[in-house]
Design goal:
It contains four helices and three strands. By secondary structure, it is an alpha+beta fold. The longest helix is centred in the middle third of the chain and has 8 residues, at 45-52.
């Protein structure tokens, strides 16, 4: 899962070299998804969004309720993934 962003400026910048793919098809994200949004080759974005994000009516705040796929991914935080290190 990637959060995209951008910076707008009028200065000419050099692009970075492309990175190698980081997914090793371990399926940890697929297995942990509570709404099965990752079972197909393309993510079911609306299913994921409807479950994971929205307004908490009780607390009157916008919330992120789920990002289990990002937590379990061994590549999300490099080799020092916080969720995987908790059990040690």
């Amino acid at each position: 899962m990637v959060w995209l962003g951008m910076v707008l400026c009028d200065q000419e910048l050099e692009s970075d070299q492309r990175k190698e793919p980081v997914c090793n098809d371990c399926n940890l994200c697929v297995d942990i998804c509570p709404v099965n949004a990752l079972e197909e080759p393309e993510i079911k974005q609306q299913v994921c969004w409807d479950y994971a994000f929205g307004d908490d009516e009780e607390k009157q705040v916008w919330r992120i309720a789920c990002h289990k796929c990002r937590d379990v991914c061994p590549y999300n935080l490099g080799s020092e993934n916080s969720i995987l290190m908790k059990g040690e």
